[in-house]
Amino acid sequence: MTPREELVAALRHEDWDRVEALGWRDTFALLKRGWPKRLLASDLAVYATVLGHHDPQLVHEALIGLASGGRAEWRPSAAQLATEVTARRPRVAGQRKGRPDQAPAALATVRELLSRGSAVCACAGGRQFHRDPGGVMRCAACRGIEQGQADAAAELEDEAA
């Protein structure tokens, strides 16, 4: 059972000792008492479903940040809180936000493919690319590696040398 599933189950059974053991007591206490309108355990289960895979301390800090920054006049929704948590989460070095094709593992795969002689797309005009399971962007027409991803992989190789 994942930590998120454990948390949701604990809330459904109103097992507050388990909620505390999972590290969520302070965050849920702040959600329940920090804004008007009472929250039931079933209401908190929505927050657990959306946020249960995050570090409870990071969620708590994001909640305090929303409240103290004046960006949450009303109790933040689970989605609003998830957005704040994601913005605060540490980024992986070398990976651009929103660009899985620029992830270190994908670029390492591209470097390996290029060293084995895989072709880079040279199609003219508008092209459509698809990301394969390894994160490599491939041209739909020629199956060549996307030029920008090949360049990024080469840049990382140059930096490593």
In which range does the helix fraction lie? 40-55%
- The residue ranges in which pLDDT falls below 50 over 5 or more consecutive positions are none
Q: Compute the CA-based radius of gyration.
A: 22 Å
Count of domains: 2
Q: What is the overall shape? A: elongated
The share of residues in extended strands comes to under 5%
Q: Strand order, main sheet: write it out.
A: 1-2
Mean pLDDT: 87
Task: Give a description of the structure.
The chain is mainly α and 161 residues long. It has two domains: 3-88, no CATH class; 100-160, no CATH class. The chain has helices at 3-12, 16-21, 25-33, 41-51, 56-68, 78-88, 104-115, 147-160; strands spanning 129-131, 137-139. The protein has a two-stranded antiparallel sheet. α1 (3-12) runs antiparallel to α4, α4 (41-51) runs parallel beside α6 and α5 packs across α6 (78-88). The longest helix is centred in the last third of the chain and has 14 residues, at 147-160. The mean pLDDT is 87.
